[in-house]
Amino acid sequence: MIKFENVSITFNTKKATVNAVRNVSFEVNKGDIFGIVGTSGAGKSTLLRTVNLLEKPCSGKVNVDGVDITVLDKQSLRKARQKIGMIFQHYNLIHTKAVYENVSLPMKISGKSTKEISKRVPDLLEIVGLSDKAHIYPGQLSGGQKQRVGIARALANESQLLLCDEPTSALDLETTKSILDLIHDINKKYGITVLLISHEMDVIKSICSRVAVMSEGEVVELNDVYSLFSNPQHEITKQLVRHSLNMKIPEGILGDIEGKLVRVLYRGTSALNPILSNAIRKYPVDMNILHGRIEYINNQPMGVLLVNINGENNDVVNLIHYLKENTATAEVIHD
Ligand SMILES: Nc1ncnc2c1ncn2[C@@H]1O[C@H](COP(=O)(O)OP(=O)(O)O)[C@@H](O)[C@H]1O
Ligand SMILES: [Mg+2]
Fold first, then answer.
1. Is residue 236 part of a domain?
2. For residue 259, is it within any domain?
3. Are 224 and 230 in contact (CB under 8 A)?
4. Beta-bridge mates of residue 301
5. Do 143 and 6 share a structural domain?
6. Residue 317 falls within a domain, yes or no?
7. CATH number at residue 267
8. CB 303 within 8 A of CB 269
9. 20 and 165 share a domain?
């Protein structure tokens, strides 16, 4: 559905030259919910905006549904854009217009008749759960409701592709979940391809199937979400995953811990028990579980444990080696 080929974007400002996107190449398959994650300033929005050519690449190609969008003439570009919906962190609604007018705007621009519009808008409002809000102004809506209007507007011209730039970053946890559920439902029901940006791994983890990690303009890692989460390779990915797992031991307690603290990550629910008991049988050490949880990513379980290990240095080293060999990862995080 989307193919980025060696896309680079450089901004020249008075103060500096910013290489916002550097030589990015990857593909997003039709029907996927594809995530781009990375810290602020990584180049995510700039890359996303090349898909509807709000940002023109300095070099490289962006293919959307088989067409290189960077070389289209004005009229073809306008046509292509109609099939691409976009939603934003701050919704970008028109405050002087009611929900109905906001949603119908893209149809008006593309020359649809009043009849077509009056047939389509109620359907759109029903999809996003706002049937009773057609004549309300954005100022009277909650953040979540505003984003629902944004989604309805993005789908107005029967878009095949939905671009989402931090769609839940201004929302609370509960509302975030309901908006992500809605995007997920729309993807499943209508087969609309979704390209979603977030600085939060939790958002990516909850609905995406594949993900690219961006840092300083580059894609540093690309994988399916489960693999990326359970076996992160790049330091940036590791940080994002660690932050998302949020398995911190309070500093005060950390100071009192003797021996090593090891984070063990394993795939599957039942795999760990025999590994831990075998490990203790093999090496005479004390092992104490301080924290543990199981995450479900795309319905696949992944377990994380923090274990405190005490004993003769050699035994501890050997045991950690044994854990490394028999689990997805085992990392000493404190010693
Ligand atoms: N129009 C612009 N002019 C100059 N610099 C820009 C412009 N847009 C983005 N940048 C810079 O490009 C880099 C990437 O920005 P952006 O794509 O918005 O990152 P992200 O969405 O990952 O937070 C940042 O350093 C940002 O300051
Ligand atoms: Mg951004």
1. no
2. yes
3. no
4. 296
5. yes
6. yes
7. 3.30.70.260
8. yes
9. yes
Tally of structural domains, the chain: 2
Q: Which of 4, 18, 90 to mutate to test the pocket of ligand 1 (most atoms within 8 A of CB)?
A: 18
How far apart are alpha carbons 260 and 169 in whole angstroms? 37
Q: Which residues does 3 contact at the CB level (< 8 Å), separation at least 6?
A: 26, 27, 28, 61, 62, 63
Cα of first residue to Cα of last residue in the chain, in angstroms, is 48
Backbone angles phi, psi at 61, to 5 degrees: -125, 150
Among 200, 231, 262, identify where a domain stops. Answer: 231
Same domain, 45 and 98: yes
Q: Does 193 fall in a domain?
A: yes
Same domain membership, residue 220 and residue 142 = yes
* Nearest protein Cα to ligand 1, atom 10: 20
- Partners of residue 87 on adjacent β-strands: 164
Model pLDDT for residues 77-135, shown as the tens digit of each residue = 999 999 999 999 999 999 999 999 999 999 999 999 999 999 999 999 999 999 999 99
The model carries a pTM of 0.89
Q: Is residue 272's pLDDT more than 80? A: no
CA 240/CA 202 separation, integer angstroms: 9
Show the domain range for 207. 2-231
Asked if residue 334 has pLDDT above 90, the reply is: no
Torsion of CA 270, 272, 278, 280, to 10 degrees: -140
Domain shared by 190 and 273, yes or no = no
| 38 CA to centre of ligand 2 in angstroms | 9
Q: Any idea which ligand is nearest the CA of 55?
A: 1
- Could you list the beta-strand ranges (E) of 53-203: 59-64, 67-68, 84-88, 161-165, 193-198
